[in-house]
Every structure is written in C-alpha cells, then in structure tokens.
Amino acid sequence: MSPTQRWAALTARIPGGRDGRRMLAVALVDRTGNGLWAATSVLYFTFVTGLSVAQVGTLAAVAGIAGIAGAPVGGRLADRFPLTRVLAACQVLRAASALGLLLTTDFTPLLVLSALAGFGDRAASVLTKLYGTRVAGAERVRYQAVNRTVANAGWALGGLGAAAALAAGTTTVYRVLLVGDALSFVAAAAITLSCAEATAPARVVATGGRTAAGVRATSPWRDRTYLAYVATDTVLFLDDAIFKVGLSLWAVHATDAPHGLVPLLMVLNNVMVVGLQVPLARFGTTTSAARRLLLPLSLTFLASGVAMAASAVQGAVPASIALTAAAVGFTLAEMLHATVSWELSVALAPEESQGSYLGVHGLAQASQRAVGPLAVTAAIAAGPLGWTAFGTVIAAACLAQHRLVRPGPPEPSGPSPSAPSPAEPVAGHADPVG
User: How do residues 286-315 score in pLDDT, each as one tens digit?
Assistant: First the structure.
C-alpha cells in the first residue's frame, strides 16, 4: 500500500467525513496558537507591558470570568444562527483581541481585551464541540477522542515552538509569538467557513439513527437534572488543575522528588493523552457505557489522590515513584472523564436546544478554571490528608453522577457494534421544571 493509500485509509476512519476532518484541522491550528500564547503570556505582560504580578493575575481572573459567560452565550447563539458563522466570529474576536494587545500597555484596555479573549475562547470551545457532535452523529465519542488527541498535539507543537523562540528572550520575539497566536485564529476562522453548515440533526443517541420522539425544546436553566449533572461535572473537571497548578507546586514544596521530574511528568501526561485517548474512547460509546465508566473513574480518582499523598514520603526514589503513579492515575482519570463527559452532556440534551444545553455544560469547565487552582492549593496546604480528601471528593462526585444519570429501558440486542443499530434511550433526562 502506497503512502497516499495509507493516508486515505487513515482519514476514512475519522468520523464526520470531509467537514469532520476540516474541524480537526481547526483544532490543530487553534491549539498550536494557544500553545504559543500559554508559554508567552506571563512573560509578555511582565517584560513587554511592564505589569506587576498582581495585575497579571487580575488579567487571568478577568479572562476566566468572561469565559464563564462565553460558554452559554455561544451555545445559545448556535441555536439561533448558523453554527459555522458563529464559530468563525468567535475566532475573529479572539484574533482581534490578541492583536489589540500589541497596541497598548495600559492596564484598563488590557483588561477589556483579556475579557474578550476569554469570552471568545470558551464560546469557541463549546461551538467546536457542538459541531463535532452534529457532524459525527452516532460516532461522536470516537470523534471527540480524535479531536482531543489532535488538540493535545497542537498544544505541544505550540509549546515547543514558543520554547525555541523564547531562547532569544527579546521583546520582538514576544510580539512575534503573539502575532502567531492571532494568525492561528484567523486561519481557524477561514477553515471553519470552508466547512458545510451542520444543522441540528434528528437526535441520534448512542449508536443508531432513530429520532428521539416526544422531546420538546426547553431551557437548560429550568432542567434540574441537567443542572445537577453540570454541578457534578464541575467537580470532576477539577483534575484539570492538577497538571496546571497542583503537581508542580506539591512536587517542589512537599516532596523529595527531584525538580527535574516535574516537566517529565507533564510530557508523560501529553504523551498518554495522544496515545491512549482514542483507544479508551471505545469504552464509552453509548450512554449506558459512559454511565458505567463512572464507577472505575471514581476508583481512579481516589487512588490518584492517595498516591499524591504518598509522595510526601521521605526519600527521592519513593517520592518519585508515588508522584509518577499519581500523574499516571490523574491522566487516566482525565481521559476517562473526557469520554464520559462528551457522551453524557450530549445524551442529556434535547436536540431542539442542543446548543443552549452544551453551552450550560461549558460552565463546568469554565467555572473550574476559577475554582480549580483554589481547590488544589487548599489540598497542598492541608498536606497528605488534603490530597486524600481531594481524591475522595471527586470520587464521591462520580458516584453521585452515576446515580443521577439513571439508565433508560433495556437496549435492543442483535446488531454488532460495528453495524448501525437502533438508538439507545436517553439516560436520566427528567422533565423540565416549570
């Protein structure tokens, strides 16, 4: 088989056809730009604009707060206007915000630009998920896994590019990287506009093509089941703060592990996600399978918290072993939760209000960005017992979510997993309140 034939065979396995593949290109370009800016932002605001540490922290906080609003607003707009146009507009907003940073060093305009960037980032994240859900249909979980793998690869590429450029350490380099970040959003918008519009399809749940009957449009803000699900998912998303804040601070301040282990564990996290996210996705391809996955997920969170606590043991070798085990455990939990969250957040949402529902679900991850760092720093301050409690709380949230998302009627039997089969009943979707 020639290289061209191998590539054609590989791309044919990606759900969503041509437009699904184009949206993966959007994810790659977008995350590459994010990787450039994530490695540059603090240095840029410190050495180019001359902000204090408190001011830089305020910019990050404002961006996070604006992002909380971006998720539901983006989802709501996607229910009213063409999805690709709304997503492209968000990408243009992000590009304009990034370029605007080059034009001022005053704190107030920088606050406004950071807020716009945070709003656009969270809205674009929800809209990309919604497009993938619509274009991939019954294979949405596998598509999510491929998308997440591509996004992590893009993030790594951006980080490596920034690391190489920052070796020069000049203000010109910082500005060039910021321009690169903005151009990545322009490219993402252009690719998005080349995609066909993905209209809200007849609801396809799990692995079939039958429409879910009797579902009427409603507001997610009046659906107590969905809101309770989002609340539990916010707790599960706390694992994101482990690798952004918790692991490095704990390793440096509370363990005997060598400091050089920390970046290696970050690399390990990225490699595991790139290599294992797609294979693990097959364990959550239906609503009931995703619900069952919450049980081993709870044990994984609990074991990872205990391993983190155990890393406080004296001695570099045992501390390093325990810290590595914790990193592996939390990475595995991160991948399993990504699979569960993608499936359940869509399966519990009525097709007529799918954008609005996914926008509200986006609040879980957006809120975690504000709460997560506080939670992990509290765990660090409490010592080993703090990490045990951290893992226990998330494990309890998994069990609560498992109870909340009740199974529907028994699934029809007969068709093989690879063949089209009747749709699976929606799990645990309660009648809206009011």
Answer: 889 999 999 999 999 999 999 999 999 999
> For position 142, what pLDDT does the model report?
83
CA distance 148 to 386: 30
Long-range contact pairs involving 98-107 (C-beta distance under 8 Å, separation at least 24): 98/37, 98/178, 98/179, 98/181, 98/182, 98/185, 99/178, 99/179, 99/182, 101/44, 101/49, 101/178, 102/175, 102/178, 102/179, 105/48, 105/49, 105/50, 107/51, 107/55
- pTM of the prediction? 0.72
150, 27 Cβ separation under 8 angstroms: yes
Q: Which of 267-276, 391-400, 416-425 has the least mean pLDDT?
A: 416-425
Render 136-149 in DSSP notation, one character per residue: HGGGHHHHHHHHHH
50-57: long-range pairs with CB below 8 Å, 24+: 50/105, 51/107, 51/110, 55/107
Closest of 213, 281, 274, 275 to residue 417, by C-alpha: 281
How large is the angle between the packed helices 224-236 and 384-404, nearest 10 degrees? 150
The count of other CB atoms within 10 Å of the CB of residue 279 is 10
CB 356 within 8 Å of CB 220: yes
- Residue 37 · residue 181 · CB < 8 Å: yes
Q: Write the pLDDT tens digit of every residue in 238-265.
A: 988 888 778 888 988 899 999 888 878 8
Q: How would you class 40 by CB atoms within 10 Å of its CB: exposed for 0-12, middle for 13-18, buried for 19 or more?
A: buried
The residue whose two tokens read 């409490």 is 382
b/e 359-384 (16+ beta carbons within 10 angstroms → b): bbbbbbbbbbbeebbebbbebbeeeb
Burial of 172 (0-12, 13-18, 19+ CB in 10 A): exposed
> How many other CB atoms are there within 10 angstroms of residue 9's CB atom?
10
